[in-house]
Amino acid sequence: MSELSIRIKIGNREYPMKVKTEDEERVRNAGKIINEKIKSYADQFGIDDLQDLLAMVAFDSLIGKMRSEEEIDNDNSAASNKVSQLNSLIGQVI
Fold first, then answer.
1. Rg of the chain on CA atoms, in Å
2. φ, ψ for residue 43 (rounded to 5)?
3. Which candidate, 39, 66, 65, places its Cα nearest to that of 53?
4. How many domains does the chain have?
5. How far is residue 34's CA from residue 15's CA, in Å, rounded to a whole number?
6. Contact 29, 14 (CB under 8 A)
7. pTM: predicted TM-score of the whole model, two decimal places
8. In this structure, what DSSP letter does residue 14 have?
9. What is the pLDDT of residues 67-88, one digit of tens each?
10. In this structure, how many other beta carbons lie within 10 angstroms of the beta carbon of residue 24?
11. What does the alpha-carbon distance between residue 2 and residue 24 come to, in Å, rounded to a whole number?
12. Closest by Cα among 20, 15, 17 to 1
């Protein structure tokens, strides 16, 4: 488990960081996605202020994370209900 020293550019700044070798691609991809979202918001809303753009990206990312967590919770709940139903049916047969 070795670490790499890399630099990720977000907006107009570079950030040095150490990442595990197996995480390098994920980290670089995250930086790329952030920059694409910054550009998209700048083009869509005509905003030049990088702090505003970063805030919008952070907000959008958190909303997406919350949505994913809700979907996972719903899926887990549905799966749990199905398992309970199956256990009940098995209990009736035995």
1. 21
2. -70, -40
3. 39
4. 1
5. 13
6. no
7. 0.78
8. E
9. 999 999 999 999 999 999 999 9
10. 13
11. 11
12. 20
